[in-house]
Task: structure prediction
Amino acid sequence: MNTKGIIIDGKLISQKIKDELRLKVQQHNNKHDTQIGLAVVLVGENQASQVYVRNKVKACDQVGIKSFVHKLDETISADEVTSLIKELNNNPNINGILIQLPLPKHLNEDKILALVDPSKDVDGFHIHNAAGLFLGHHISQSTQTPILYPCTPSGIIELVKSTGESIEGKHAVVIGRSNIVGKPVAMMLLSLGCTVTICHSKTKDLPSITKQADILVVAIGRKEFISGDMVKPGSIVIDVGINRHEGKIYGDVNFDQAKQIAKHITPVPGGVGPMTIAMLLSNTLKASEK
Ligand code: NDP
Result:
């Protein structure tokens, strides 16, 4: 059966989310006579990071969140970063704190991320939030503040839901087991009632597994790695990959092939990418509601 897949338009869906957020942020700002604030910590001159930060600042402007970018020198010491984060943790005008990754090699990412107040951790990377997600909690049992889920996985779930297909009972296959995409999205799909298989570089006979996937989430980082014959007819395919090649951006899925087989499929660019930023804004609003 060769059905032509319906494109899941991440740009459109994220715009809808941002439109709704703008109203909510406005209400919040009016009610509290203050503006929701997001602090972004950017260390060094990484080109891609600078683009990501610019996009995040632009998105904040669009919904009425005030952004504060802290551009730090590549050679800054761990102590100096620590004192900045502590200051931001205590600043009542800052509702969310984002540490743009990757950090320069001399800074230990895990240690730095652990310094962020979990209730301001809008990337959802703090161990407190990771544990909350693992336990399926929405509110922290200890602090009564919302558990903040990581942005890309949350965006993926929104895209799956946008298809209108039922999710419960589906076989979801996630390729990739990173802490920022693969593992958390697998936990979220499990919470939604999917039977979840997680694959990675050591998985044997990957095609035999992907061909069983009603929902296939691909987060590997290899250009067009998933061919059409690895996709189950009628499935939902979410391509997380961002692979730059000769000035163009490609996903992890061969879109033209998979589109002939899947029922719903995300493009790259214009799929998961825009959702990640929308979810960051959503988390910042959530963090302000504590
Ligand atoms: P990581 O490099 O951290 O993880 C990649 C995963 O893919 C690993 O678990 C690895 O397995 C697995 N993998 C590698 N090769 C194979 C293979 N041949 N077969 C099966 N599995 C394999 O990447 P991230 O999770 O951070 O990101 C994945 C992709 O998503 C990247 O392209 C990244 O740019 C993109 N991305 C996009 C975002 C967006 O907003 N759209 C946000 C975040 C990421 P193992 O663990 O065994 O090494």
User: Anything to note?
Assistant: The chain has a mean pLDDT of 96.
